[in-house]
Design brief:
By secondary structure, the protein is α/β, with parallel strands linked by helices. It folds into two domains: about 1-245, NAD(P)-binding Rossmann-like Domain (Rossmann fold, 3-Layer(aba) Sandwich); about 250-395, N-(1-d-carboxylethyl)-l-norvaline Dehydrogenase, domain 2. The protein has twelve helices and 14 strands. The strands form two sheets. A ten-stranded mixed sheet has the order 7-6-5-2-1-8-9-10-13-14, sandwiched between helices. The longest helix is centred in the last third of the chain and has 28 residues, at about 280-310. The N and C termini lie far apart (about 65 Å). The model is unreliable at about 70-95 and about 405-409 (pLDDT under 50).
Amino acid sequence: MRFHVLHSPLGTLLAYHLRRTLPSKHAVSLIYNHRDVVQKQITPNNAVRLEHSGVIMSVPNIDFELHGRSRRSPSEGSSGTSTVVGTEATPSESKPIESLIVAVPPSATRSTLNSLIHRLSPQSTIVLMQTGLGVYEELVTKLFPNPARRPHFIIGSPRHYAWLKYPNHVVHNLAGSIDFSIVPDPHGRDFEAILRSSDISSLDRGLRLTDIANKDKDPQFAEYASLRNTVAVLSRLDALNVSWLPMGEGEIVFRRDLVVRAVTDALAVTLGMPNGELLSTDSSRKLAEALIREISGAFRRQWYTELRSHLPEPDDRLPPMPLLPKGLGRKALMGDLVRHLLVTKEYNAPMLSDIQIGTPTQLRYGLGYLFGIGRTYGFPMPTTSALYRTIRARESIGRPICKSLKERI
């Protein structure tokens, strides 16, 4: 089987560990966009280098594919996609993609997948390795509206920090963990059947690959093989501290991670400080607490509304405000934020860096997504709304142009 990974800092980190983990009979491909940059950097043995704590390690035999809208050379195929070996490009057959790991920014996901859609099928598996809720919903609405033609989806939440020194040289500057869950099957297959089995002790009910597909007893094994294999290899990436969670648990984890990222980004853009200084004053801490109070309240309103909608008829015995999962409460979310800022105290939030260099931010998939929950369920979020609109205005200005007072006079 071949695993494809979209090129990015995190994507390169994942490709490195996939290649280290997988047997040689399985292939790993990094998909790039720019031919001229890649051809200058690719080594003869197709190696990817990983740098961590000053130590540089290398893993060979990773294939490099080019896919983009850049001007094609005569050797390229009609699709504009080619496979690179060393520095020589050969025409690609645009073979179907079995497993695709997507670690590009949420705002670039739809357009990138649209350019690869001719290689994706219901037998493919797409891993959305992003802390950005709303991406999956956008993809199934805009790109894969027909469940019968939809690939399998896995949603992951990474907590690793990395940057690219060169296209094939990634610096892993902050190690963390990754949690992922499988999106429920539109055809009804229960990937978590063991959790509902009365024949197995609750202590032994860990998720199992045979609930995804069982080669010996499953006539539809081919339809789910890529999903099973992708989950199997992700679960073996011990160096990245990867965990497979039931979707019910995953949804809570993904929301917690999103709140941490969104609030960190909002504070950083507003205050212009590195993460370690964002809660250094009483005023900034109160601002963070106000944001988290509103977000947790929106989660509570959503939880209450959806719970009531599943009842056959109004039930007066239901408490007016059902208990929200503990991880989405104010104290838990504030604790998550404080721990994140301590771990990343020396770094700038991604959105602050985006604003400073004038590139598009992920506001829509962060604070914008959370603000949208409040708006949908009628929960007032005045602080969140004010910051969201402020950052939108700041983003629309583009790269800041600083002039001294003397120059203005």
